[in-house]
Design brief:
This protein is mostly beta strands and 163 residues long. The chain folds into two domains: 2-55, no CATH class; 64-161, Immunoglobulin-like (Sandwich), CATH 2.60.40. Helix content is 6%, strand content 49%. It contains two helices and 13 strands. It has helices spanning 78-81, 128-133; strands at residues 2-6, 10-15, 18-23, 33-39, 45-52, 64-67, 75-76, 85-92, 100-104, 112-114, 121-126, 137-146, 152-161. The strands form four sheets. The protein has a four-stranded antiparallel beta sheet. It has a four-stranded mixed beta sheet with strand order 7-13-12-9. A three-stranded antiparallel beta sheet has the order 1-4-5, with no helix packed on it. A hairpin with a 6-residue loop joins β10 and β11.
């Protein structure tokens, strides 16, 4: 018997007589319908399921973080470091008031911080003292926070300090 499924943006995984669907994207349209069918060797099709998703509990929306380029090009010169920087962070599906943490090279560093999320936005703040204290070379800046579904989301950016 051949088992077939028609699911938008999904991955079919068959293990023995068990059938699992791994959804590759959040379900936004609860009115969509899915069909699951089986075809035997005589090519007789049997409909197993034709149900509206409105009867199912929708999946939580996926959260994300996006960051504008730090210092415009992810490179900070000594002249740029002399002034503090405020870089826009865009969030998707984060609750207002959600805290974001910032690390530089794996360490919480004074002078690098993020404001709490408000209306799907936050700000990465870098003091001039913190920027000037960076040694020359590449540094990894990581911003993370927990989205509305309770999943920790992380954004990583390389910031290069030049003379």
């Amino acid at each position: 018997m051949t088992i077939a499924a028609q699911l938008p943006q999904s991955n079919l995984d068959i293990k023995g007589d068990r059938l699992r669907f791994l959804l590759a994207a959040a379900i936004n349209e609860c009115e969509q319908q899915y069909r699951l069918g089986a075809v035997d060797k005589a090519t007789n099709t049997v409909s197993l399921l034709n149900a509206a998703l409105a009867k199912l509990t929708p999946l939580a929306a996926v959260g994300s973080l996006a960051l504008a380029a730090i210092y415009g090009d992810n490179t900070v010169t000594a002249a740029e470091a002399a002034s503090p920087a405020a870089v826009a962070i865009t969030t998707t599906n984060f609750a207002d008031g959600a805290a974001l943490t910032v690390t530089v090279d794996g360490v919480t560093t004074a002078g690098f911080s993020a404001t709490a999320v408000a209306s799907n936005a936050a700000t990465l703040n870098i003091t001039s003292a913190a920027a000037l204290a960076l040694s020359e070379g590449a540094h990894t800046v990581v911003i993370s926070g927990t989205d509305a579904a309770g999943i920790v989301r992380t954004l990583t950016r390389t910031l290069t300090r030049t003379a």
